[in-house]
Every structure is written in structure tokens, then in C-alpha cells.
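--- STAGE predict ---
source: upstream dedup step, 1 unique chain passed
mode: sequence only
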Amino acid sequence: MTTATAAAPSVSRDGWYTILTVSLGYLLVSWGMGPVSAILPTISADLHIDVSAAGWIMNAYFLLLVGAVLVVGRIGDIVGHRSIFGLGVAVFGVAGVAAGFVGSYEPLVIARSVQGVGSAMVFGTSLALVAEVVPANRRGLAIGILTTASGLAAMAGVTFSVYAAEHLSWHWAFYVMGPLAALAFAL
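--- STAGE serialize ---
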């Protein structure tokens, strides 16, 4: 080990706590992407809509996520990234549970739109939160952890969502977002 490496600051306890919390946020918003798309045919059959209309269940999420991420990131710069991140987790979780409870197409698209805004709030502030507590020489590790959480969410989420759609109902793919968001919010 070189002297420069030995003297490099490490990630503090608060830094690891922040990485864990932000990773859970990434897990949440990633759960809103791939796993839902895997069960769109089931949702469209249950709601008696064609698959192209069901695409709006995903498109609404993505449009609001992409359209709002820069705006909420800037709002986070002004009012605080932690506040916007926490609010985003709460918005995402409540909208996810609402999406599970709806029984018709239009309210589901609206709930997914609100989830997209919550996702933008999480994504738009998460890297700033990590940058606040993780030394520059360790940020690559932190971002790798966030990326891993996102990938694990996609894998576990698709598995759970398909299982739920086949053995329970597609609504459970959304219900599960509530407890996960509550945990992230508590952290």
C-alpha cells in the first residue's frame, strides 16, 4: 500500500448510512421500472385494455421521471437534498400503494405519473447526498453500490412481480412498494 492510499480518507459511518439509504431509494425507483413492464400484459388483460394503452402505464412513469429530474435536483440544491429525497421516497411509496388499490386504467396511469415525480425526486438528489458524505476518492465505490442496488431491484422485482401476477394479483407488485418506501423513509 502506498502512502497516498494509506492517507486517503475512508467512508465515515454516516457515509455508509447515507449509501445504504440512497441504495434503498435506488432499489425503490428501479422497482418501478422493469418489474412493472414484465407484468403489463397481465394488467392489460385484467383492465380490459389493449397492450398499446397499457404502455402508458410505463410511459407516464418515465415521462414524469425524465421531465422532472433536473427541476427537483435544482430544488434540492435550494431547499436541501435530504428533504427532497425523503419526500420523493414518500411520494413514490404512497403512489405505489395507490397504484395497487386502483381497479381501472386512468387512475393507474395517474398513480404511475405521481410515482414518476417521486422517482425524479429520489434520482435528482441521490448523487448529491452521496457526494456530501463520501470522500471523492471513494465515490466510485459508492456509485457502484447504488448501481448494484438498482440491478438487484430489477432482478428481484421482476421475479416477485411475475410471481405475484401469476399466484396473487398484479396489485401486489405495487403494494410491496409501500413497506420498502417506509423503510427508506425511516432511514
